[in-house]
Design brief:
heterotrimer, B: alpha/beta, D-Maltodextrin-Binding Protein, domain 2, globular, C: 279 residues, mainly alpha, 0% strand
Chain lengths: 288, 355, 279
């Protein structure tokens, strides 16, 4: 859509007269932005890669294919997939309720949904300890039934869900708000059922916002550190996620391996972002 | 009206939630399923699994000790033992056990941290006396790590409090190692000032005034000093200092001050967990074997001071055995008193930072 | 509490019951009940003790450090966020897609990794830190370092809030203003800026709230010196390390309240502005 507008605007009169100045502004702005991104994002990334490879390819490969690193990767992916599914499910319903209806307390509801976003991940982990931990109120019941939540996989999944809770709904709400609800109302008047309306009218509009939310949620879930660190117990090969494994390697004075494993995370992030770009491109092509 | 439609839609809602809960319980069962499996395995004496929750600097030690113990245990009982390690700051690790991280044994930096587990009922009272040397199979002390050639001529505690010296140490509030650092410095100053607490406190105030980075754990401090090149001197565990020198030959030197502290990292079986999992026997053997001659030598090679004096003597080229050491029980009245006096909220450590 | 307003109950779109039901159930199970456990833990604490804990001078100092750094970081991000969004939406240039794709990186990079690399980079021995060291500026282990880490984690918020609004903005108004003789900066400030203010505010609030809670990346780059470079989440950790759950949850509660208030203000402001915009 962007492109169409740009190509239309190209040959317009006023543009040409002022060709010099806008292009100065344009390139100043672009270079400022590029500089900012280089300093704040690319250099840290480059540091990771440079450190990862500073002892050669062999060391890198060993660190990445290490038994514990692979186990940590599996756990990270599992918890990310679960967290993303739960939060997507939630996001779809929450955004529908919030944008298509008027009700009292909506502001509070939206704010409550956003809370995990801004709470320190440390607190995000702590709350589950306060419930399911040995000092928590649910502990006697759980041990009696042989269920272990914190310091085991379920705790890690829960903490990841908590931290990434608002990501999908946060993307959908503003989008659906801006689209209004006239179309849905018209369809409802014609007697279409709720899910039919959703599938035929709402979903096509929010497809790319939803995808974006899912991608963001996955990215954050994969990278989550603080909350998971509190509930994990750092049991090697059992409750270590990839970010925790990085911390362990770092604490073993093995900065090279730590960076090598981090680069898996960087790689995952880049793949996710490329997928997003492809998806965006496809969606735009379709709508054209 | 709307509530009616909600009621109509209630079945799918309940169904979805049930499915989710079910999925979740499935995972919960999978995670929790580990302990019954172990208990069952213990009976057939085919394999047994124990978890050792330890503090940061012991990673390298237990990586080799676990292999040694596995062989020993296999030879003795014919049983295979798997040991899961967990490392982190001592306080943090103790807390995770207290909060339900199922450890069969804890091997932490301070008696105090294990004392907290005793208070919580996880460990039976009297654990300190169960193993020789206050349940400390190996000891260590606090030394200075300085840059090659000791450019600032830092040879004792009074050198590092001089203006312009930058000190790196972890935070005594969160790090076990840092508490030993603090007490070692206190031990020196109280001796220097002949017991004058006010002047000793000023000494510590000057010392912490020179601290530029206060990481939350010992490993963090070492990285700050070694990798990021901060500071002139790192107050470190002796074994950490040796490890840093081993990892970066020719870049650092160890300086032993005139007075330091006998740091006793303690070990204990977590009775509640071991009883539940039926691992008491192997857990106890795991700790006792730390006192065997082979294990003591292994500890010496990993730069811990063996508690067996004869074996310690074998390592006299490595360790400065003439160093005068204060210790926690005789000079500070035990950990409970020391914590109360120095590290509790509002106690001396907080006071020296207050303006 | 969450009933449809009488006046507008004529909404004919179905699914309110189902969607609000699921929303509330999941919200309660996954967020609210866990958060309430903080209150439950505090139930044994009297208000005096609570108040004394959270107003301790050392903790007040951490609020100051946390809030001032978060504010500075969010302001920097606000300026660069608007700029980035503008550049990404309005201009075509080589490698634009890469630049666009990189924006989410801070979400995906574990905060600990970010903290470690930023510290290495900005310490006086690092690539960037050594440049600043020559002019006598220390970045790592100071409040500047904390701000840098917070800028890093806050980058995506503002850009991604503004971008869709800019994309949808009808360029006719701009062109019109421009044809009518308004200068480019004037067009920007009078025509475009008002349109993106709600989105920018929302992004600012989110970034700010996120910065306040940030722990993983900041602890590495902050010197953690009491009264100078300690952040509030670190205090929570410190209290926990001392097995002082009551104090830790007291400070946590204060943080939760701060977060709630900030988000509530932002949400209200946003809906107020959009209501005005709609007339």
């Amino acid at each position: 859509m962007r492109r169409v507008i740009l190509s239309k605007a190209g040959p317009d009169g006023p543009r040409r007269d002022n060709n010099m100045r806008p292009s100065i502004i344009k390139w100043t702005l672009i270079s400022l932005c590029v500089l900012f991104i280089v300093i704040m994002l690319i250099l840290p990334l480059a540091t990771v890669i440079v450190y990862a490879l500073r002892q050669g390819w062999e060391t890198f490969r060993d660190a990445v294919l290490d038994e514990y690193a692979v186990k940590a990767l599996k756990l990270t992916l599992l918890s990310a997939v679960l967290a993303v599914s739960v939060n997507t499910f939630f996001g779809l319903f929450a955004s529908w309720a919030i944008t298509k209806f008027h009700f009292r307390g909506k502001q509070i509801l939206t704010t409550l949904i956003d809370i995990p976003f801004s709470i320190s991940p440390v607190i995000g982990g702590l709350v589950f300890i306060l419930i399911f931990g040995r000092i928590g109120w649910a502990y006697p019941f759980l041990t009696a039934h042989g269920v272990k939540i914190v310091f085991a996989v379920p705790g890690i999944v829960l903490a990841t869900i908590f931290v990434t809770f608002p990501f999908v709904s946060r993307e959908l709400i503003p989008l659906m708000q801006s689209q209004g609800k006239e179309e849905e109302e018209a369809a409802a008047l014609m007697g279409a059922s709720g899910f039919h309306i959703y599938r035929k009218i709402t979903l096509p509009h929010i497809k790319w916002g939803l995808l974006y939310g899912v991608i963001l949620c996955s990215a954050r879930a994969i990278g989550e550190f603080g909350a998971v660190s509190v509930v994990s117990g750092h049991l090697r090969g059992k409750t270590n996620t990839l970010p925790l494994h990085v911390e362990i390697l770092f604490n073993e004075f093995n900065l090279t391996a730590a960076c090598a494993v981090s680069s898996i995370l960087v790689f995952l992030a880049v793949v996710i972002l490329i997928l997003r770009n492809i998806a965006e491109f496809r969606v735009k092509k379709e709508t054209r | 009206m709307k509530y009616m439609s909600f009621l109509k839609k209630l079945p799918p809602t309940v169904l979805t939630l049930a499915v989710m809960l079910g999925l979740f319980a499935g995972y919960a069962a999978k995670g929790g399923g580990a302990s019954p499996a172990i208990a069952a395995a213990g009976k057939t004496s085919q394999a047994v699994e124990i978890t050792n929750v330890s503090y940061d600097p012991t990673r390298e030690l237990y990586a080799v000790y676990n292999k040694l113990f596995q062989e020993y245990w296999k030879g003795k009982t014919g049983q295979d033992v798997t040991i899961t390690q967990s490392h982190g700051g001592s306080g943090k690790q103790a807390r995770s056990v207290l909060e339900g991280n199922d450890a069969d044994v804890v091997t932490l930096a301070l008696e105090h941290d294990i004392g907290e587990l005793e208070k919580a009922g996880l460990i039976d009272a009297g654990w300190v006396g169960e193993l020789p040397g206050n349940s400390a199979p190996y000891t260590s002390t606090i030394v200075f790590l300085v840059r090659k050639g000791n450019p600032k001529k830092l040879n004792d505690w009074d050198d590092i409090v001089k203006p312009g010296v930058e000190i790196i140490t972890p935070d005594p509030k969160s790090s076990g190692g840092a508490r030993w650092n603090f007490l070692a410095a206190w031990g020196y100053a109280i001796d220097l000032y002949g017991g004058d607490e006010a002047r000793t406190k000023q000494f510590l105030k000057d010392l912490f005034g020179n601290v530029t980075v206060l990481d939350s754990g010992a490993r963090g401090s070492t990285t700050t000093f070694v990798e990021n090149g901060q500071g002139d001197v790192l107050l470190a565990w002796e074994n950490e200092a040796f490890l840093s020198i081993k990892g970066h030959p020719g870049e650092f030197e160890i300086v032993t001050p005139s007075i330091s502290i006998l740091a006793q990292p303690s070990v204990a079986v977590v009775d509640e967990v071991a009883r539940k999992r039926g691992t008491e026997e192997v857990a106890k053997a795991y700790l006792e074997y730390l006192y065997s001659d082979e294990a003591q030598r292994l500890e010496g090679r990993n730069f811990y001071r063996p508690s067996n004096p004869k074996i310690l003597e074998e390592f006299s080229d490595t360790f400065n055995l003439k160093l005068k050491l204060v210790n926690i029980d005789d000079d500070f009245g035990g950990w409970a008193a020391a914590t109360e006096k120095f590290f509790a909220d509002g106690a001396i450590f907080d006071q020296i930072y207050k303006k | 509490m969450f009933s449809i307003k009488r006046g507008q109950s004529s909404s004919i779109i179905p699914g309110f019951g189902l969607s609000i039901g699921i929303t509330l159930t999941m919200l309660s199970l996954l967020v609210l009940i866990p958060l309430l456990s903080v209150l439950l833990t505090l139930s044994g604490t009297t208000f005096e003790v609570f108040w004394k804990t959270v107003t301790d001078t050392q903790i007040i100092a951490t609020y100051k450090v946390t809030f001032s750094c978060a504010l500075a970081a969010s302001l920097v991000n606000l300026i660069f966020g608007i700029m980035l969004a503008w550049v990404l939406v309005r201009y075509e240039f080589p490698c634009k897609r890469i630049l666009d794709g990189l924006i989410e990186l801070p979400f995906a990079l574990p905060t600990a990794v970010a903290g470690i690399t930023l510290t290495t980079l900005y310490s006086d021995k690092g690539w960037i830190g050594s440049l600043f060291d020559k002019i006598g500026v220390k970045i790592s282990y100071t409040t500047t370092g904390i701000t840098i880490a917070m800028i890093f984690i806050g980058i995506p918020f503002i850009v991604r809030c503004i971008q869709p609004v800019l994309e949808k903005l009808d360029r006719q108004y701009e062109e019109a203003a421009f044809v009518l003789g308004a200068s480019r900066p004037r067009t920007f400030f009078k025509v475009i800026l008002p349109e993106i203010v709600p989105a920018a505010l929302s992004g600012f609030g989110l970034a700010f709230a996120r910065c306040i809670g940030e722990y993983g990346s900041v602890v590495f780059i902050a010197g953690n010196i009491p009264y100078k470079t300690q952040i509030t989440p670190l205090i929570i950790m410190n209290k926990l390390e001392q097995f002082n759950y009551a104090a830790a949850t007291s400070v946590a509660l204060v943080m939760i309240i701060f977060a709630f208030v900030i988000l509530f203000l932002i949400n209200s402001l946003q809906s107020w502005i959009s209501r005005i915009a709609r007339g």
